[in-house]
Amino acid sequence: MNRRSKQQRGAALILVLGVMAVISILATQILETSRQSTQAFKAQRDLQQARWYARAGEFYATSKLGDYIDKKQLALKDREVQFPIEQGFIRYELTSLHRCLNLNSLQLPEPKENAAEREQQKAQQSYTEAVWRYLITEHAQADTVSADQLIQRAHDWTDPDELPTGVYGAESSFYASQAPAQRPANRTFLLPSEIRYLEALAAEPRQQILPLICARPNDLAIAINPNDLQPQDAPLLQALMGGAIDARTALNIIEDRPREGWSNAAEFWQQPVLKDLSVSEASKAAIVMKRHYFSLITEVQFGVARFRLISLLHVDENKKTRVLGRRYGVNS
């Protein structure tokens, strides 16, 4: 009898220990689930707060743009700004979109009714295509066929009709045969990376020109501000002048720029290395001293969240600023 009682007590002890082990495991899992839920909630909360901080940074930057239209040069303190905030920081980088070749300059304008104005349009378009052809063939080292493909397909990508331009143009029938199939946008370019959809340049030459191009929506001008150019932008000057200056001269022009920048286009063209050059009126018109388009990259660190906002900004002659587009990125 005593032996059976001892066996029963031993079995009960094992059962109790087993139940306690199961309860301990369940409690641990519940605590871990609760901890993960708390962390997920905090991460989501921090991310939402970081998003609004990014919009606040954008608002602050846009409030300053009116002062930058006519300013000779944008100082580093104008272009790169950082604010401390509780649990992190807001940082933004402002870039003028007048130190790059506008992809929308390849968009064909509506023909003018006046014959003289139509001739002026043709001369401007011929010059624009020559600038692009030089940049693609001389800087990116692509062949002339690739250059003509990009130019003509850019015309078709932005025009509303279904008629291919020239020998290398492409409309819906061409893009429908690609993998994956697509259609031309029939609108202004919004991003320079859209050139990959044109199926005109191989990857290497495309990567060569991407840092030198941009997309200014609804703006068909080249409009380069030489006060904004950096040493790596020297190929743009060569392209604007059709190769009339070499790479070293283009670099020297940028590096020897007056400390406060050139006051006007005439002063730029009166430099000793340029004043005797024979340049077209279209080439002279491509140099401007104003800024109307900007790219703004705002980064926020808040708590456990990192947030990135890329804004395309426009400021008109009345110094009224508009946000033309936003792209959001998250890195938690």
Q: Span between N and C termini?
A: 67 Å
Radius of gyration: 30 Å
The biggest sheet amounts to: 5 strands, antiparallel
Specify the overall morphology.
elongated
- Which ranges are low-confidence, i.e. pLDDT below 50, for 5 or more consecutive residues? none
The domain tally reads 2
Beta-strand residue percentage: 15-25%
Identify the CATH architecture of the largest domain: Orthogonal Bundle
Structural class: alpha+beta
CATH topology of the largest domain: Ribonucleotide Reductase Protein R1, domain 1
Biggest sheet strand order reads 1-2-5-6-7
CATH homologous superfamily identity of the largest domain: EpsJ-like
Give, in order, the helices and strands: HHEEEHHHHEHHHHEEE
Oligomer: single chain
Keywords:
332 residues; Pantoate--beta-alanine Ligase, Chain: A,domain 2; Ribonucleotide Reductase Protein R1, domain 1; 2 domains; 5-stranded antiparallel beta sheet; two-stranded parallel ribbon; 7 strands; elongated
Write a short abstract of this structure:
Helices cover 44% and strands 15% of the residues. The protein is an alpha+beta fold and 332 residues long. The strands form two sheets. A five-stranded antiparallel β-sheet has the order 1-2-5-6-7. The protein has a two-stranded parallel sheet with strand order 3-4.
How would you describe this structure to a colleague?
With 332 residues, the protein is an alpha+beta fold. The chain has two domains: 41-97 and 293-328, GSPII I/J protein-like (Pantoate--beta-alanine Ligase, Chain: A,domain 2), CATH 3.30.1300.30; 101-286, Ribonucleotide Reductase Protein R1, domain 1. 44% of the residues lie in helices and 15% in strands. The chain has ten helices and seven strands. The chain has helices at residues 2-64, 76-79, 115-139, 144-158, 172-176, 203-209, 234-240, 247-255, 265-269, 281-285, and strands at residues 80-85, 88-96, 101-102, 213-214, 293-302, 305-315, 321-330. The strands form two sheets. It has a five-stranded antiparallel sheet.
